[in-house]
Amino acid sequence: MPETITVEGMTCGHCEQTVESALEDVDGVTTATADREAESATVEGDVDPTALVTAVDDAGYDASE
Predict the structure, then answer these.
(1) N or C: which end of the chain has fewer CB within 10 A?
(2) Which superkingdom, per the lineage (predicted)?
């Protein structure tokens, strides 16, 4: 089942790629898609939402469940 989190601070395509890369590095994530206009990111896989938020925060963006 997909997991979607809120991500604030993305302003360009490079930002989306950075968030996607950070999320793909989380154990259990199979795919990640970030959308700056929707201020969200969606991942597929068996993951803990808290780990997703932490990964995005560590990448320099503001995330919440």
Answers:
(1) N
(2) Archaea
Query: DSSP 3-state assignment of 61?
Result: coil
SS (H, E, C) 4-57: EEEEECCCCHHHHHHHHHHHHCCCCEEEEEEECCCCEEEEEECCCHHHHHHHHH
Structural domain containing residue 24: 3-64
Q: What is the pTM of this model?
A: 0.96
CATH number of residue 14's parent domain: 3.30.70.100
Q: How many domains does the chain have?
A: 1
